[in-house]
Amino acid sequence: VMKKNKKHLTREQRYQIEALLVAKKSQKEIALIIGKDPSVVSRELKRNSHKRGYSAPMAQMYVDERKERFKQNRKLTEPIKRNILRELTEEQWSPEQIVGKARKEGVPMVSHERIYEFIREDKASGGVLYKNLRHRLKHRKRAVGGKKVVIPDKISIEQRDEIINRKQRFGNWEIDTIVGKENQGAILTVTERKTGFLLMKKLPKGKNAKALAKELFFFLLPYKDHVHSITSDNG
User: Fold this and answer.
1) 9, 40 in Cβ contact below 8 A?
2) Strands (DSSP E) along the chain, which ranges?
3) CA dihedral of residues 186, 178, 222, 169 (deg, nearest 10)
4) Per residue in 70-113, pLDDT tens?
5) Hey, which of 32-41, 154-163, 225-234 has the most confident mean pLDDT?
6) Taking the C-alpha atoms of 203, 207, 208 and 209 in order, what is their torsion angle to the nearest 10 degrees?
7) How far apart are CA 162 and CA 179, in angstroms?
8) pTM for the complete prediction?
9) 37 and 66 housed in the same domain
10) How many Å apart are CA 94 and CA 62, to the nearest integer?
11) Are 16 and 64 part of one and the same domain?
12) Overall number of domains in the chain
C-alpha cells in the first residue's frame, strides 16, 4: 500500500485551497477538507502567497521553480569542483563568497549548502578541506569566562520574509568577512541575494565592530534606495 505524502500538496489541492479561501474558510477548515494537517496549510500560505494573496497557479510556479533550482544546485561537476577547491585553498573564501563571486562572473556554481556538503564528505573520507573554513565546520565557542553578546531585536534567519528567500527583489544584502592570518586585517564582502552582485573592501582594522559598521554604511550609501535587508553570519 502506497503511503500518502502528508507534507506535500498536489496542484489540485492548491486550487482547492484557493477556492476555499475565497469562500472564507479558516485554515483549520481547509486542512480538514483537503485531508492535510493545519500546519501544512499554514506553511503553504506563508511560503507560496504573494503580495495580493494566494493564487494556485502562482503557488505552483514557486514550487516548480524551487524544485528546478534544487536540481541545478546539486550537480557538482568536475569543473565546478576544481573552482571550489581553488577558491577554498588559495583564496580562503567561504562557500557563500564562492557562490557570490560565481554569480557575479556568470560561471556555473552549486549552492553554498552543496559546497558545505562537499566539504563534509571530504572530511569524512579523511580530507582536510574543512581546515580552510574559519569555523572548521564547528560551532563557535565562547572563551571561558567570556560573556555572551546579545544582539538587540535579533531576528533568526529562518524568520526572515519569504520574499528574501525567493530572491525576487533587488536590495536584500548578505555580508561576510574574510580574516587574514593571525587576525591581521580583513576583507568585507557584501552580496546582493537576487543578482549575486558582489562588493568587496579591505578593512585595515580587521573585524573591529565600529569600523566595520562605518565602512558598511559608506559601502551601501550609493544603493541606499535599494537596501531592504542586511543579513550577516554574526561572525
Assistant:
1) yes
2) 172-179, 186-192, 198-203, 229-232
3) -160
4) 666 567 889 999 999 999 888 888 888 888 888 778 788 888 88
5) 32-41
6) 110
7) 31
8) 0.37
9) yes
10) 28
11) yes
12) 3
Torsion region of 208: left, alpha or beta (phi above 0 gives left; psi -120 to 50 gives alpha)? beta
Say whether both 56 and 94 belong to one domain. no
pLDDT digits (tens, 9 = 90+) for 134-169: 766 654 444 334 444 444 454 545 555 666 667 778
Q: Which of 40, 42, 45, 53 is nearest to 9 (CA)?
A: 40
Strand-pair category, 172-179 with 198-203: unpaired
The interaxial angle of helices 27-34 and 11-22, nearest 10 deg, is 140
The range of the structural domain enclosing residue 90 comes to: 78-132
Pairing of strands 198-203, 186-192: antiparallel
Separation between Cα atoms, residue 200 and residue 177, nearest integer Å: 9
Are residues 179 and 213 both part of a single domain?
yes
